[in-house]
Write the structure tokens for this entry.
Amino acid sequence: MKMLNYINGTLVAPISGDYLDNTDPSTGEIFSYVPDSDERDVQLAYEAANAAFPTWSKMAKSKRSAIMMKVASLLLENLDRFAKAESQDNGKPVWLAESVDIPRAASNFEFYATAILHDSAETHEMEDVALNYTMRQPLGVVGCISPWNLPLYLFSWKIAPALASGNCVIAKPSEVTPLTAYLLSEICIEAGMPAGVLNIVHGLGPKVGEAMIVHPDIPAISFTGGTATGKHIARQAAPMFKKLSLELGGKNPNLIFADCDFEKMIKTTLRSSFANQGEICLCGSRILVEESIYTQFKERFVEEVRKLKVGHPSGDVNMGAIVSKGHMEKVQSYIELGKEEGGTVLCGGNRVYPEGYEGGFYLEPTVIEGLDYDCRTNQEEIFGPVVTIMPFKTDEEALMYANSTKFGLAATVWTSNLNRAHKVAAELHTGIVWINTWLLRDLRTPFGGVKQSGVGREGGFEALRFFTEPKNVCIKF
Ligand code: NAD
């Protein structure tokens, strides 16, 4: 199957006529082809988007909202097809795509389609001198670039607020997992999205993504991906004074105190370590445990990790396949590094070959102990099913370990001491803190990281603010 770009309301082949192989990570076999587009396709998309902008940005919000709600309902009507496609492209269990990824993509459209109906402008009165009001106007044609780990979920998390606030969009999904973005373009046509409002250009980062970030008439880029790519984008875009939202990597700590609800903590820590094969930017990969319960934690956690089932994503499994051969090898290299740095692999560490799917990219969930907090294994993002466990003695020591990396995306704290919960949350250098839970998201709340985990915030009205420019109008009486 050959995918197509979605430009000016129609599905079109890339100008080059070239395609890239798209591999099913559960079998290791090529199952489809994705357009290898370049700057010429981006330019066509730009022209279509620019032509659509005057009408889309001036359309009544209720009408824009209705089109986006239609996209959401078509996504849910096609839940099964989308979930299977997401799983085949990414390797994640079908049940996970069906219960999380696709419903969340629909929610993203619903959330922003309805948010714009309840937004209002600010006024600043200067007694009997003047009145200021602040308009929030769309930026024009904006660029959205997303990664492979939560393909449609993150793609729509950017596109929805951009469209809702009246922009036209050029979007590029990851070339590793393009399939659901392609299916989304079919649904947009069915939903009656006007031509040119959303354009989806497939292909490689250094070709399509690069053409978007250096395009002189695209004033804003919303990017989610690796920190190295984010740095490159910032370097390119800064001299052009583009607005940038960068959601980057993480190396998130879990701080587990002896006074926590042990059973709840174990259950959630299994998820926060290995959900989506550990390929979620919010997964907790450094598990810090108070010394007095360290041995109890270690024995129980390892026992539970050993029970996790790894296998073909269509089955009754906890973990499916790693997204690609290259990424699997990267994760394996970090397991080797962990050993070289003096760590002990308590469980996992090996490739898995499920019967009938021996060519797929499967890894065991892996737990390593005995590493210093400042070694590379504990400082660099692995982004796979690998966690380290480490004891700590005091709250201060736990915080020092937690805050020691260059990243600052999320942290999870397990304690039943209310004072400690608030104090530790305030001291953590992260954009998100979960207390006694993980991955619980209210779409109204700000989402993003500090330090090298990113710049800017997504979520709720933050994203609508990013995709609009405030303009103050001052009227003298
Ligand atoms: P990546 O940076 O390799 O790619 C992300 C996207 O950027 C892809 O679409 C890619 O094609 C594109 N790209 C690559 N080079 C580019 C360039 N020169 N110009 C423009 N675009 C370019 O990241 P990935 O491997 O797809 O995703 C994994 C990373 O994403 C991890 O580091 C993970 O932590 C991060 N991530 C962060 C969040 C968050 O919200 N902070 C969420 C999910 C994933």
Remarks:
- Residues 145-149, 154, 172, 174-175, 205-206, 209-210, 213, 224-226, 229, 232-233, 247-250, 281, 381, 383, 409, 449, 453-454 surround nicotinamide-adenine-dinucleotide (CB under 6 Å).
- The first helix runs from residue 39 to 58.
- Residues 253-443 form a domain with the Aldehyde Dehydrogenase; Chain A, domain 2 fold (CATH 3.40.309.10).
